[in-house]
Structures
1.
Amino acid sequence: MCTIAILHRVVADSPLVIAANRDELYARPTRGPAVIGDGVVGGIDELSGGTWLAVHASGRFAAVTNQRALAPPAVGLRSRGLIVRALIAAPDPVAYVAAIDPTHHASMNLVWGDARGAMVAYLRQDAAVPGRRQRGARAAAGVHVLCNDRLGAPGFPRGARLAAAIHAALAVDPTWRALVDGDGVGTGPLARALGDHARVPHADVPPSHLPAALARELTATCIHSEFYGTRSATLLALGDDRVLGYRHADGPPCVMPFQDGDPMIRRSTMTTREATMALTTMTDRVRKLVVAGLIVGADGRVLITQRRADQSLPLQWEFPGGKVEAGEAPVAALARELAEEIGVIAHVGRIWDVLFHSYPAFDLVMLVYVCQLAPGEVPRPVEVADLVWVTPAELPGAWDILPADRPLVERLIVEGSPR
């Protein structure tokens, strides 16, 4: 994400408002917002499993922009998007950011915060550059726009134009509803400002190493070049311990309508009972409620099982579990499935995730529980083709994981195995 506006203590009914455009190569595969963790919603970068902006139902957010650099990033650097996923879950965000080694990543700005305010950290991959490793600068009350350098850095006309549009809208009506929704979801002046195509005259384009046409296009808030541009937009209002409003356009905000993301925020904290009820209220498609066990060994490895050749999706790998029968409690169903599939007695603990996947013939809701094997229990393939213990880092690529289980893999890579 390359443009983030921070409105702190200036919107009448929301202590913190975020308005952001994500700019990226058109060829890079991404998915729109989804539940990516317990209480966490964000878009997904399908190459790395990371996200550019994540919001937690408790009223906090984390995001990243790249920093401008003359040379392309070195091969082999770690994903910046995975940092955002870890940052939104970190109990002490400041300590987490302070521990990041910026030489392991392409240069970036991290932004995070809640109703109390927003923090910005500038992390340069070339960490030896003087003054370019500042950590945790707090944005003062007011309107701030962060592009691909420090707050207030010169050379970003789109940032100055967006800030001016925000100030103008605040002078008319400083409420979230007026700024964002206007006459309908995502039709207000703040939403329209994110779709602004205005560019500076050729003579006023800031100095750049890029081709002149591209450098001028990058002065627009909503960017449209041949191979790179604005891919999505987000509007977010945060209050004390909760999200007051969440709007997302899964495409350029100049043409793609904003959608109301509040229901997704609520779903991110669904209890087992609420997830079960969703089966009868979401759509008229056939739905299946299944349970899966996240069984973690003493060494942090997790257990996955392989489907039999005579089953649908044959020989693919998944987390052990199965269907909840009519009248059966999900916890009891998982204990039964683990006994039947891998021959163990297990304690079914807390729910760790709620996943949704749409297969061609049905919709699936999966409740994922942290499980612990009873003393002396050793899993064996009873009603599965095979089983194996793997580290989260080994899961991508090496194992053909079921589509419904892949978001769980992404979360394990970011957060590690639960304890």
2.
Amino acid sequence: MRYCCLFIFTLIFTGLIFQATANAQNTAATQTPQLSVSPTVYPTPIPFSDVIGQSDQANFTLQEIASNTAANPTADIIERDLPALTDEINARVEETAQVVANRLSLENLRRFENDWRVLAKNLPQWKNDLTDSARKLEANLTPLNDLEKKWQTTQSDPANNDSAPVEVTARIQSILTASADARRQIGVQQARIVSLQDRVAEQQKRVDGAIASIRETRTALVGQLLVQDSPPIWSRELWAQSQADVLGQSGASLSAQLNVLRDFAGRNFIRIIIHLLVFIGFAGSLIFLRRRAHPWVEKDAALKNAAVIFYLPISTALVLAILFSSQIYPQTPQIMGAIFGAIVLIPTIIILRKLIERSLYPILYSLVIFILLIYCERFPIHRKLSGGYCFWRKCSVGFCFFSGSAARA
């Protein structure tokens, strides 16, 4: 009997233990964890006896923040150069639209794409510089916020309000006024940076769009290299269908090119004056050197050919000035490059005629015609005639070479 009671008591005790363990686990599973919330830490007010000493340090911090905020040469440079770049992009967009619509040669499309890349080479750097400037302005807000909280707590401290001298109160107010001015300056600079970032991003978007359109056109042309996309140039059907279109597109192209040239001259008027002064400087220097070189040529006949550039100072100066144009104009439209190329041919012919034999003149003239036709190819013409025009150009130049060689023989 005793053992039976002991056995029953053991079973009851074990059941109670299991039930207590299960209840503890269920309570732990269903209990919502409590998040510890750290109390807000307010800065300690400055005793009025230390206000004068710490105000000097606060003024130094505010002056440093104001100096970092006001001095932003990167934004000044971008704000100065971005309008001119925007004007260049506006002119290039219209010119690129003409080129893409008429599907000029692959060489011209590649040249246009390279021109776009050179034109927009500063935009990525400007974007990074503006981002760095925005981060610096945000970094200036951290010490400014800490300083304002500290001095606002000091100003609202009852001990300072009751027993602080007037000088201490005025010093606290001056610190808070200066911090408010610094915050206002940071806000103005932040608005300026954001505006410049938006303008730079807009121009980068336009540049990317122009390059993408040129790439698509070039890819389409590459895929049609072995495909006849228009009737032969000798086809009556081609000329009958395209005559009116050629006249219309030629007039529109010429008008657009003249507008681009006029806008370029308006934007680069000062550079054109500088270019003219460079030409005058080259011409004057060559005229002066011609007088010095004349006695040497009389003594040594071998210097006669080398002295031709001094005896033709205007032609030589014109060639040098046009070669120097790439250093004056950051970007030139296609029509301006064609004009420079056509102009430089005239003095080049005059100089070369003094250096080569007369029998080589036909070959020289055929080369000049070939170069002129290359420059003419830069102007948009009817899309269906572009391939035939290139074929006619090569045939005509080959004929000129053949005629020049036959005449020499």
